[in-house]
Amino acid sequence: MLLDALRSLDFDADLEREAMEQIGDGIAALFDYQGFEIEIPRDRIGLLVASDNAGTATSVKFWADALRTGVGLASPELFPWCLANAPCGALARRFAITGPNTTLLGEADALRAALDTSADLFAQGHIDSAIIVATCFAADGQPGQAIALRLRQDDGAQDEAGLVALTQACAAPSLRAAIDRLGRLLEAG
Fold this sequence. Notes:
This protein has a five-stranded mixed β-sheet with strand order 1-5-4-2-3, sandwiched between helices. Helix content is about 40%, strand content about 20%. By secondary structure, the chain is α/β, with parallel strands linked by helices. Helix 1 packs across helix 3 and helix 4 packs across helix 6. The longest helix has 16 residues. It has one domain: 3-Layer(aba) Sandwich (Peroxisomal Thiolase, Chain A, domain 1), CATH 3.40.47.
C-alpha cells in the first residue's frame, strides 16, 4: 500500500448531515484520481469512516423532536441520519463510490480498525484504493475534526514511514487525539 494523500480540517456543524457536507467539500480532492497511470474504477475504491459518535447528535435531536411533537410529526429528513453508516453513505453517494464502504465506531481503535479493514480489502483483491475518513463530530463545545487519507495499491510498494506513522497515531487514547496526531504529521510533511 502507498499513502499518497492526506487532508485535515475542522468543521462547525452540529448535525452529521451538515458536517458531512463540510467534510466532503474539504476532502473532495482525495476522490480525484486524474493523473494516475491507470484510472481506478469507483467500484474498486473502498471507503471507510472511523467515528467516535456517528449518528448520535441527529438521534438525540430526532427523538427530542418526536417527544415534543409526537412520533407522527417526527422529521423523515433527519431519521436516516440517526444511523451510524449515514456519514459514509453520504460520501459514497456524493463521490459515486460503489466499492466496499462502512463506518467503524469507537475511539482511536475505530481508526485502527479502518486501517486494518482496508489492508484486508487490499489483500483479498477487493480494492485498488481506499479512502479513510476519521471524524469526531462537534460535542461538548468543541468543534468537529476530521482527517482523511487515501491509500492505493502500487505493485507491492510501501510507504513504510507513512504507514508506521499512521499505526502510531492509532495508539492515541481517543479518536480526537489520533486525528490531532495525524494532523501534525500532515503539517510536518
